[in-house]
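anyone seen this seq b4? input:
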Amino acid sequence: MSGGLVNIRANLEEVSQRIKLAALRAGRSPEEVRLVAITKTVSVAAIREAMACGVRIFGESRVQEALPKTQELQGDNMSWHFVGHLQTNKTKQVVGLFDLIHSVDSLKLAMALEAAMGAWSGKTGSRQKVLVQVNISGEESKSGVSPEEVGVMLKGMAKCKVLSVVGLMTLPPRFDDPGDSRPFFRALQELARSIEKVGIDGVSMRELSMGMSGDYEVAIEEGATLVRIGNAIFERRNSEK
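predicted toks r here
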């Protein structure tokens, strides 16, 4: 993904400006939106360059690729998020390593994370922050709990002692026109607000992870607090090719 001719600083400046303008269009403060730089297939050198440009949150989607990067790149000013599909047999490898797991897509996975986190944290009182992935579009190819079942899942997760639910995540269908993603982003925001009104002990809806390189501006306009952007940062733009 990250070739040697990529101008990461220029790409980040453009992305940051677009994030700011999208937030302002929606009457929001740009500080409400955080960038998660997706580093799948990105080199450690490129990640360091992004860090030098001020990026603080990085997202990985494959456990085996993430482990060496997170071991080499650590620091008080750096945060790692796991954004990909997570198998239950990999939970022991991710707990305590990522500040936020975006992709808890079933109660079975949540319980596996709860057990793994409990064994890892011991008596430290640490909790693993997670988002519930919602298949808002109903596509069979996508992971995630259905909107109709998310309430039951959250009530089950509310019983967890070392998992902390802080919001929702979704992946809309792919569209050539980013605007076509808007109904799906809006539906996730409305779902989060309805969950807030019900009120589930130990469950927060303060985070909405939605929007990627092709549609993050629309996602921000519809309430995203976390946007997951990789290609727009680490790939050459047309003007650079």
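The first helix runs from residue 8 to 25. Strands lie at 34-38, 57-60, 79-82, 100-104, 128-133, 163-169, 203-209, 226-229. kinda curious what u guys think
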